[in-house]
Write a structure and sequence with these properties.
Elements: E1 6-8, E2 11-13, H1 15-27, H2 51-57, E3 63-66, H3 72-75, E4 78-80, E5 90-94
Antiparallel strand pairs: 1-2, 3-5, 4-5
Length: about 110
Amino acid sequence: RSNYVKLVNGELAGYLGDVISELAYMLNFTIATITEAQSLGRSTDNASVNSVVARFNQGAADLAFGPFLMTNARRDIVDFTGQILTGKTYLYFKMTEGFYVHWDTHFK
């Protein structure tokens, strides 16, 4: 669980909640579903991953917040940002093909 984003009445709140809401407005996208995972994801015996990381792999998630450790297995599934704040919270986007906008383009 991130200390910087919370669900309040089904809506994002907190510092990163405000950031993603502003990104959604500026980049004209809609947040359709918000869910909280009980686990960030860990390796299993068959080299797969579960929980949040699995949601990316299955196409069920495009964005996640959390204190993930960057591993080679996770890098094959998600694109990591640099550290946003002093702490262990990062913003993750699903890797896409085709049109590419660098995550900080609108800040320049």
